[in-house]
Specification:
By secondary structure, the chain is an alpha+beta fold. It has helices at 2-20, 130-133, 193-207, and strands at residues 30-37, 40-50, 53-58, 60-70, 73-90, 97-106, 109-114, 120-123, 126-129, 136-141, 145-153, 163-173, 178-183, 213-224. The protein contains three helices and 14 strands. The strands form two sheets. Strands 1-2-3-5-6-11-12-14 form an eight-stranded antiparallel barrel. It has a two-stranded antiparallel sheet with strand order 8-9. A hairpin with a 2-residue loop joins strand 1 (30-37) and strand 2 (40-50). Residues 1-27 form the signal peptide.
Length: 225
Amino acid sequence: MQKKLFSKTLLSAILAISLIAPASAKAKNVAIGLRGGSAGIGGEVTVGLLSRLNFRSGLNFFSYDGSGIESETEYDYTVKLRSVPLLLDYYPFDNGFKVTSGIFINNSKVTGVAQPEGLMLDIGGIKYEILSIGDVNGKIDFRKASPYLGIGWGNALSKGSPVKVTVDIGVLFQGKPNVTLEPTKDTSLIPGFDDSLEKETADLKKDLEYLQYYPVVSVGVAYSF
């Protein structure tokens, strides 16, 4: 009960501070800019809501190819970063420090193909002939609405020069990865293959659990008007 009362009191205090903060803390109401970092690159728009509270959104995207070994199987993969942040920036002080919370509409995914060793492919610790199972395609994606919490420096709408540099550091809570593996040929008549595929999928999920907490570090340049 006390924790609940404390949370309500703290929220009320923050809102009150925002409402009574001097309007001169910001000279502009809208800013547009570019941002790049671990979530991708793209554009963003910042809108002033209150003197110490901004709303920020945009589009992040990036793609790259690579290869690696997961659960003792080598994969060639393509990473596609695609997200739309919906964020609130709160500025408790006048030095540009901010606390940010919100969600990312998270459409990032990884697709890949398991690579054979000669004519054999290791699936779940058992080797199968490529001629029998074909390629094994994989897909990894995440929670579509992923909460975000972070801190940063710089206010795109503060008075002074219309050009501002901002920095964000935070964590995207995108949940444990969803993993799907599918062979390109009909494997229903191969004894034990379904069990091996299930084990390979479970091993991949376990190996990739660290991705549920994705670090987000970015730098942006904005122009206010």
